Amino acid sequence: MAESVPVRCPVCRRDHQFTATAYPCPCGEPVAPPLDPGGAPEEVTDRAWSADWVTVPCRACARADDWPRPELGCPCGAVLRIPLRVLGQGAPPVAAPSVRPAHIPLPATAPAPRPAFRPMAIRTARDAVTATALYLRWLGFREIRRAAWPVPSGVGLAAEGLFAVVEPTVRVTSVRDVECLWLTALSESVTCVYVTLAGYGDGARERADSLGVPLFVVDLAGVPQPANGAGEELVVGGA
């Protein structure tokens, strides 16, 4: 199974269980960054792209590739960098094996489960927008396209009944950003979603909570995580 470690947010002291994402090596072996269960996570406040990648060798072929450094978006709004074992010290990095669970038939009356989201690694701003569009489609929104409505920062995406903003840079999302998104969605009578790489500034999450705006933080593995209650509700209920 994929490596998993407990993580306590240094900002709000909330406990999480983080599971490493495995990436496919060109040889076919899944590779995952080696997590350090004894290390302390760090809040990401400033982005440096050189620090957002880690070189991990493949256990099968010894090929070393750069993969996104593991991160976790806490519901309090903090983005946490997960500690890693120092490569070359201690136990060597071990790739997570691919395990296929036994099939368990569902009752005839049960709804079809949503398939697992398949992320794409983010290396450019365009990748961040594409990963968000894939995630919105996974949530149930259809015909994702560039929005015609202007946004103060980031990239606007639209679908039937949806207006979303993606901030694909290291800029922290502000209260004004959240309010502009909400006002535009209100005028068009659609649902709104905010997705960012760098997290949310002072007051932004509280304002989103008061307006019912779903917030997400996407890591460099391309996996958006809900950053408030409205985001968690959207993940559970879907579009």
Explain what you see.
By secondary structure, this protein is an alpha+beta fold. It has two domains: 4-81, no CATH class; 125-237, Trna Endonuclease, Chain: A, domain 1 (3-Layer(aba) Sandwich). The protein contains four helices and 15 strands. Strands 10-11-12-13-14-15 form a six-stranded mixed β-sheet, with helices on both faces. Strands 5-9-8 form a three-stranded antiparallel β-sheet, with no helix packed on it. A two-stranded antiparallel sheet has the order 1-2. It is globular and about 55 Å long. This is Restriction endonuclease type IV Mrr domain-containing protein.
Top keywords for this entry?
239 residues; alpha+beta; 2 domains; 4 helices; six-stranded mixed beta sheet; Restriction endonuclease type IV Mrr domain-containing protein; three-stranded antiparallel beta sheet; Trna Endonuclease, Chain: A, domain 1
Please bin the fraction of helical residues: 10-25%
**Poorly predicted ranges:** 88-111
Mean pLDDT reading: 83
Number of helices: 4
Strand content: 15-25%
Overall domain count: 2
Order of helices and strands: EEEEEEEEEHEEEHEHEEH
Protein name: Restriction endonuclease type IV Mrr domain-containing protein
